């Protein structure tokens, strides 16, 4: 009757034994009225145990699985009534033909098995509660299994979507950095080997550290430093970058590759389109379990849609927003806004 989740100590025999022991104790307590000893009532219930078990197991393994699960409720009801009648008849036969003549020969007298009052009493008073209890257990078990399966499906879908979103980050990084490297190699720049080294560090983080569900916050920040160093090699003295970190970040964890899209977005959609002196400011603060990230960058007005006032960014911010919705529901605030000649992204995130 039980799945692994409903077994005691993962032992089906122990589970069934304790179930029927509990049944005997409960039924003995319900039916005792004080005229006889508790032991005598217990023996009476023990005599009816075989037919109670017959009702329970036929209901669970035959009627429920064949009719109730398939929503053949009318057939289930007819079959259940037939089962109760047959079990009550079997109980009367067992009592009149075997138990009473053997164990109570001096106090018993032979009666007809087909005494309808006794048959109905056995059906309604003794056996129908067993049927209803096992039915309730099976309904709850089925609901529990379906709910668990549904949660597994949802979890798998979310995992697949997260993996897809994370996979989008990888080629995005690689595409931008290889473009930088290509430009430097065309110029035969001595900075090209440094770009290759930094690119190796980026790929190492993306291939190994970002494969788990979470990574240390300080590693994510180190990854940002590496990316910034790559951009500095590209823009040289024309770029001014400030990265400020405050608070204890050593023991905090965060979803990997969650913060870098903000920095990448600042360079790709702000800095890279300007020819004058450009700047990016990144402030990271950790306080009372909350992470505050503020990224500002210079921009030109041409980067914004004149109709909507929205930044013409690519998949970066949409990607990270969707990941925040999946990984930190109701635990973050994200705001992106345009101000004169600057673009600002503010993130407030509950890490624990």
List the defining traits of the structure above:
352 residues, alpha+beta, Heat Shock Protein 90, 2 domains, five-stranded mixed sheet, two-stranded antiparallel sheet, 9 helices, 60% helix, 14% strand
Can you describe this structure?
The protein has 352 residues and is α+β, with helices and mostly antiparallel strands. It has 2 domains: 4-151, no CATH class; 189-350, Histidine kinase-like ATPase, C-terminal domain (Heat Shock Protein 90, 2-Layer Sandwich). The chain has 9 helices and 7 strands, in the order ααααααβαββαββαββ. It has helices at 12-31, 38-47, 49-68, 73-103, 116-186, 192-207, 217-235, 260-269, 315-327; strands at 215-216, 239-246, 253-254, 278-287, 290-298, 332-339, 342-350. The strands form 2 sheets. Strands 2-4-5-7-6 form a 5-stranded mixed β-sheet, covered by helices on one side. Strands 1-3 form a two-stranded antiparallel ribbon. Helix 6 packs antiparallel against helix 7 (217-235) and helix 8 (260-269) packs antiparallel against helix 9 (315-327). 23% of the residues are buried. Mean pLDDT is 79; it is low at 303-314.
